[in-house]
Amino acid sequence: MFNRDGIPFFIIMIPFLSIIFCAFFISSYHLKINDEHFQSEIQSYKQLYLQKNHSSQNLDEIIKNKTQIYNQSKNKFLNFVIVLTICVLFSMFLFTLLMSSIINEIVQKYITKVQDEERKLKNLNETLASKVALGIEEGKRKDKAILEQSKLAKMGSMISMIAHQWRQPLSELSGILMELETATRFKKVNEKHIFYSIEKSNAMIEFMSNTIDDFRNFYKPDKKKEYFLISHACKKALNLVDATLHNLSIDLTFDLKHDKKIFGYPTEYSQVILNLISNAKDILVEKEIKSPKIHITIESKGLQSIVTIKDNAGGITEENLDMIFDPYYSTKESSKGTGLGLYISKLIIERNMGGELSVENDQEGAVFKIIVLG
């Protein structure tokens, strides 16, 4: 019933068996019709013969001859049907062997293909663990490289902002020393003037020392989460960049609509605010915007605390909008940006604090929105 590859012969034989059945049925029906027709003709012949001759002397002989002739024809037809059936059966047998061979070849090719795929899958499963380990190790190396580049970028940014913060007190110190030098040359210096100059110089030096402490503490990573006010984290960032914005004539507006305490890492949150403000500052300078502005809004909706930072630099192009948070992607020149600031900011807000950092454009420029649950 089945061959060695599991192909049932009867599936191939069904159409041929149907042909044989139909042939025998038609042949039997044909013979039956002919027998009935012959008997009918014999009866009619008998009647006609008796009507004309009124004697049945030769009738039996005539009928016997006709019957003999009919049987001979019938036997010839049966022999023809038998020979035809044998030829059809032989042809079907050959066709069945051919079809079985073709189907077996196709099945064998399919079985070989499946076995090859199974071997590939088996090899893949055997090497999967090592590939996963290599992938994890490679991911760790990339993360380490990203962090190192981020540290370098932060260091460069910190030095730049310290320089801006120190520029004014250094100028004032220079003025105090020049004033003392002039007074000494013209013999107009007195004890009161010297003590006043020393006091004012000490105040400038203390301010510069506090600036260093502020930057050092600002970039010191938080070890644990704590509750903090959004406004305090934002002002901490503003204190570091305020002098830079002032020197660049950038107008910064701080709109505190509704303050709120949130649970997270305050220093990391301040770093995100500082990074967004610095990016806005860079694009305003790069595009040479007249009357450059940065607007910061703090508000809340239900459990959500929302900080919005927007500028009037014209916005981000559509092709850059979808990739702005990707690592190493930057719209700045290679010497001015690493493409890591927004990527790390998004990691801090979304991975470390369970919030959301998004960006969109309005009529004036880009709008960055930070949403964190209180």
Overview of the structural elements:
By secondary structure, this protein is an alpha+beta fold. The protein folds into three domains: 9-123; 142-211; 224-373, 2-Layer Sandwich (Heat Shock Protein 90). Helix content is 68%, strand content 12%. The protein has helices spanning 9-53, 59-185, 191-218, 230-247, 266-286, 318-321, 341-352; strands at residues 226-229, 251-256, 261-264, 293-301, 304-311, 356-361, 366-373. The radius of gyration is 51 Å and the shape is rod-shaped. The two termini are 75 Å apart.
Write the layout of secondary structure elements.
Layout: H1 9-53, H2 59-185, H3 191-218, E1 226-229, H4 230-247, E2 251-256, E3 261-264, H5 266-286, E4 293-301, E5 304-311, H6 318-321, H7 341-352, E6 356-361, E7 366-373
Parallel strand pairs: 2-4
Antiparallel strand pairs: 1-3, 4-5, 5-7, 6-7
Helix pairs in contact: 1-2, 2-3, 2-4, 4-5, 5-7
